[in-house]
Amino acid sequence: MVELTIDGAPVRVPDGATILEACRAIGIDTPTLCFLESLTPVNACRVCVVELEGSRALVPACARRAEPGMAIQTDSPRVRHSRKLVLELLGSSVDLSTAPDARRYCERYGADPRRFGATPATVAQPIKIDNELYVRDYAKCILCYKCVEACGVDAQNTFAIAVAGRGFDAHISTEYDVALPDSACVYCGNCIGVCPTGALMFSSEHELRARGQWDEPAQTQTDTICSYCGVGCTLTLHVQENEIVKVTSPIENGVTHGHLCVKGRFGYQYVQNRPPGELSS
Question: Which of 38, 80, 183, 196 is most deeply packed, by most CB within 10 A?
């Protein structure tokens, strides 16, 4: 076990645990956008930074291992200022309208992206609709790398996408920037499952939002087992007005860890193949 101090409180965590895990062990809500338990930390968003005694720079809690004797502050003025500025920079350059966590963090830290002016540089670009399963709106992309990691060694091992370019030219791209249907993408949708901002979205959700009919509070969520093969993946069916609008999988599930194949995530239409007006059981 490793002993350290967080916000004045002593903490003991297993050797190899991160600062983020130590914070969570004592109930400290540390903001994260690029972190997910099932993916390799890439330290991209920097909203989880904490102040480590003796360190010149703030350190990312999601990736820094806890060490004996560490003294950490998670809510110091320096930490709050850094998190606020990061959120303001993100909000001034990308559309966070479908990023509930980011918007909640903005309220928490009083971040106001508008202070950078009425016309800050942004990554706005046309929405990409080139298949029937999901939509890519990279004007909402914060380059958290989650989709890249999920498409790579952490889940799918397809390597259909990566980050290309630098600065404001940095973007998620297929190999040689070919159209998605011509890429190595197998449409597993695991990139959608990990996206924190809605840059990647089910076509069904995108269409309902466009019509002003997306009503998440009214939706029910039901866990079931995928019927396509014997692996036994757990599906969470999101249902609105008796129609399945999207499918996810619990990250804590030992079979899937939140990941699915194309059939599990998108192959639910047969469930709704019933006469008009007929209610499902």
Answer: 196
